[in-house]
Amino acid sequence: MSSFLSLFKASNLSLADLELIKVTPASDNKGDKTSALYNQVRWKAFLHLFRWVITQYEAHLSSLKTLDFSDMISQGIEMTQASDFHQQTQGRFRFKYIMVDEFQDISAERAKLVTQLRDSSPGCALFCVGDDWQAIYRFTGSDLRLTTEFKRVFGETRVVTLDKTFRFNDRIEKVASSFIQANPAQLKKTLTTHTVSDNPEVCLLINSKETGLAQAFNSIVEAISSNAEASSKSTAGLDSDSGPGKGKAVGSTSVMLIGRFKSSLKDLSVWQKRYSQLQISGFSAHGSKGKQADFVIVLDVNDDKYGFPSKIASDPILEALLPKLDDYAYTEERRLFYVALSRAKQTVFVQAELGKESVFVKELLKFAADVRCYLSDLAPLYIESLFCPECKEGKLIPIEGRYGLYYTCSLGKHYCDTKLDACTSCKSAPMLRNDTHHVCASEKCDHQLPVCPECISGKLIKRINSKSGKEFLACSLHRMKDANSCQYTSRLAG
Ligand SMILES: [Zn+2]
Ligand SMILES: [Zn+2]
Ligand SMILES: [Zn+2]
């Protein structure tokens, strides 16, 4: 509601205009008539509430005789629009340049104010600094086209490219720049870097989160000690090639964990305790903008609702007032991921769970020679074409548990709690059930066990009677001390 209120106040629309808006359903439901109708009904209901809220809100502001930020901008626009503005401000309003920093975040309304201030001061020029690759605030009304189409909007322009980066090395630059420029809507730029590296500095950790993070931290500790060694060997002060993290004391080495959402950072304090010699911080991807660290670990880059790219569609109600997006897939999320990648001075790690790698990880894997990949030992057991037998949507993910190997559904236990044992014969593939048997999924293994006729989910496995020494069949779900577990047994045939 508050986001909508700010967007509405910045939009110059009236309440009557809102009534005329046709809300389009989230992109995956386009063309669906029920969904279109639902969205329209929801929009009407929302407007009913909104009318009340905005009336109360404005009454509250005026009772306090105060303005909010949107009012300041819109009243500024009104004042500068007045025909006598220049007369009134003569002698007081003489600007040669109006400077706007972080220009990529500007909204249409604010751009209008800036333009009018320029136009009402003769000889005044706009001086704007911005990077369209890092535009990540569309949800607050920022319109990237004001940057990418600057000349069309603001007139004759001289562009000065700030193309040298002092933060990251050439290896991160190569990957990050190609990644962001895959979207043709971004401006083309060639960056040069102050530092160079002999090794790939983008590392993919495809593993469980716990193991992936451990690998990243081990590699960071190793890098610090080899940096220290290198700088003690080189003549003091003459090693111009040393990276930003190099030659530093361990205690001043910074590591930043970045999650698409803050929920990815829950275990931050655990890692802080474990690696107390490092300065570890944690930010959401949005919160990381403008910050930097020697090493960066981007977490949970999974194909998931709360992964990276996030698959949460913005609400069609908010979408109705937001600036248009270019139609490249995940365009805003791509810029956000670029921001995360480019926070690192020396090395950036990207962690994804085996079998759940997001499209961004799959894209990074294609930079073969420029990325280092730490792949889980279980990776050879993962079969891309094998779907979860329950939901038929998720993939089967191998996991090394305390009692051996098993498989779970990639959609996660909140959506699908499938858990399959690994085959006891080949000890690698999952056992899949058909009408009569549990069959090993591996083509190279013909192991199978009958389905328990009583509970219809357990497997019949051989056991030995401790007294008679005779073999018999029992259900795998039988638990010694649990009377409620399946009690089925049968004699061995033959
Ligand atoms: Zn499933
Ligand atoms: Zn097998
Ligand atoms: Zn059973």
Automatic annotation (TrEMBL):
One of its GO terms (molecular function) is 3'-5' DNA helicase activity. Residues 1-169 form the UvrD-like helicase ATP-binding domain. Pfam families: UvrD-helicase, UvrD_C. One of its GO terms (cellular component) is cytosol. GO terms for biological process: recombinational repair. It is an enzyme of class 5 (isomerase). It comes from the Bacteria. Its EC number is 5.6.2.4. This is DNA 3'-5' helicase. The lineage of its organism: Bacteria, Pseudomonadati, Pseudomonadota, Gammaproteobacteria, Alteromonadales.
